[in-house]
Write a structure and sequence with these properties.
- By secondary structure, the protein is mainly alpha-helical.
- The protein has one domain: Tetratricopeptide repeat domain (Serine Threonine Protein Phosphatase 5, Tetratricopeptide repeat, Alpha Horseshoe), CATH 1.25.40.10.
- It is 66% helix and 0% strand.
- Helix 4 packs antiparallel against helix 5, helix 5 packs antiparallel against helix 6 and helix 6 runs parallel beside helix 8.
- The N and C termini lie far apart (44 Å).
Length: 147
């Protein structure tokens, strides 16, 4: 973990994180912040390495970030990412980030019905609207236009 701390030390903490989670109001643990920084740098392999070394690997947020990193790395590991999104949603069925990202993964697999099912769940979770809902709606609309 020490090497990862050094690698991430030069990254500014003020960047907004693209991977959404549910810890916005709580001071996140160090491993979580480092993983988010690596994701912001689009260094998904580093994020996976940080997450793999985290002392706590069972939270919905951990699974969501791991799924996100696996889905966006080159080459993507969609089957593993899907398992992590499913685990995140088992832990927290209303996890906004996991609902959105799993929906986007399903679109990559050309599963429009599955993505629309997750969109309905997001609509229930985002009673006053939220960015995750808007993003998945946009992704579904783009998918329909292209296919």
């Amino acid at each position: 973990m020490k090497k990862l701390l050094i690698l991430c030390a030069f990254v500014t903490l003020s960047w907004p994180c693209m991977a959404r989670d549910s810890t916005a109001d709580v001071s996140p643990p160090e491993w979580f912040s480092l993983a988010r920084q690596a994701i912001e740098m689009k260094n998904y392999d580093l994020a996976i390495q940080v997450l793999s070394q985290a002392p706590e690997k069972q939270s919905a947020d951990w699974h969501n970030l791991m799924g996100y990193s696996l889905r966006l790395k080159t080459p993507p590991q969609l089957m593993m990412a899907e398992r992590h999104y499913q685990a995140a949603l088992e832990k927290n069925p209303m996890h906004l980030g996991a609902l959105e990202y799993y929906g986007e993964l399903l679109l990559l697999k050309k599963d429009l019905y599955g993505a629309q099912t997750l969109l309905k769940r997001l609509e229930k979770a985002c009673t006053s609207g939220c960015e995750e809902l808007n993003d998945l709606q946009k992704s579904i609309a783009e998918f329909k236009t292209k296919n």
